[in-house]
Design goal:
Helix content is 27%, strand content 31%. The protein is of the alpha+beta class. Strands 6-7-8-9-11-16-12 form a 7-stranded mixed beta sheet, with helices on both faces. The longest helix has 12 residues.
Length: 294
């Protein structure tokens, strides 16, 4: 497929397609890179919907691989077809492609980022879309914004890292840690802070390097996708919050209130697609400790 062809164009090591051996013949690996112990999956939105794959399928496969020391990366069809630049950048970074520019975080200047620039940067470079934040800071090198970290204030004075992202084509060594240290030193009101790592693509190592603690793996999350014109165009998966029952009933009053969210969505021509889930990380301020200089 197109993804496998792309991997071959940027990676010079051994590549195996449709191999079952790495996962003990229980699961098939679309693309297997034995020298790196990395498996890459291409998940078609139709064939990986709950019409064909169970709620826990992707997470079970990911865990099965992790137990065998294999990193699994799951590329979704809609992201590959409609937002390819961000997916290619992730793959080039993982495979240490020569086109990636590496810059040390200590060489960068930290500045607060205004919401307009934040939105534009995230929409261009992040795998997910922009969400409004309470604060956002970025690393600049030679006047160019290269990495940002945004924080959202939640209930009960809790905070969450909403987005961390880097300009496509760059790796900022130690960038996330430098931004994190700067923020928690500057904003002493942050006592508890969490973040979710997308297991479809990432390992969570960046959070561990920042000093956050692993809490748990979440259950798989779901999106909705329409199969309208699916042979011509792959529509983006839609966040489930847009399909909350009260929103659907308000928008489509012809449906009965005793119908479930899923029943209404199916009637509208949408099906659910389950992902791998997230890893939850947490940081708590210890007032007895001094923080390292940023």
């Amino acid at each position: 497929n197109k993804l496998a062809d792309y991997i071959e164009s940027i990676y010079g090591g051994k590549i195996e397609r449709n191999s079952r051996k790495p996962l003990d013949y229980k699961f098939e690996m679309d693309i297997w890179l034995p020298e790196l112990k990395i498996g890459i999956e291409f998940n078609g939105c139709w064939w990986h919907s709950e019409n064909y794959k169970s709620k826990n399928y992707h997470q079970e496969k990911w865990k099965f691989a992790k137990e065998r020391g294999i990193r699994m990366i799951q590329i979704w069809e809609d992201k590959w077809e409609n937002h390819r630049e961000s997916q290619e950048s992730i793959l080039k970074t993982v495979l240490n492609h020569g086109s990636i520019t590496k810059i040390g975080a200590r060489k960068c200047e930290i500045k607060e980022i205004q919401s307009k620039i934040e939105r534009e940067f995230i929409d261009k470079n992040h795998n997910q879309k922009y969400v409004p934040s309470s604060m956002c800071y970025g690393l600049h090198f030679d006047g160019k914004l290269l990495q940002i970290m945004s924080i959202v204030k939640r209930k009960n004075n809790n905070y969450e890292i909403a987005r961390i992202c880097t300009e496509s084509g760059y790796v900022i060594s130690g960038g996330s840690s430098r931004l994190f240290d700067f923020i928690i030193k500057k904003h002493i009101e942050i006592i508890n802070l969490i973040s979710y790592c997308d297991l479809d693509l990432f390992t969570g190592k960046v959070y561990e390097n920042m000093g956050m603690n692993f809490v748990k793996y979440t259950k798989p999350g779901y999106f909705y996708v329409t199969m309208k014109d699916r042979y011509k165009f792959c529509h983006d998966r839609i966040n489930r919050t847009k399909f909350q029952k009260h929103k659907l009933l308000k928008k489509y009053p012809e449906f009965y209130s005793n119908m479930t969210e899923l029943e209404i969505a199916n009637k509208l021509g949408y099906i659910r697609v389950w992902n791998t889930g997230n890893a939850l990380y947490e940081w708590k301020r210890n007032p007895k400790n001094d923080f390292a200089e940023s």
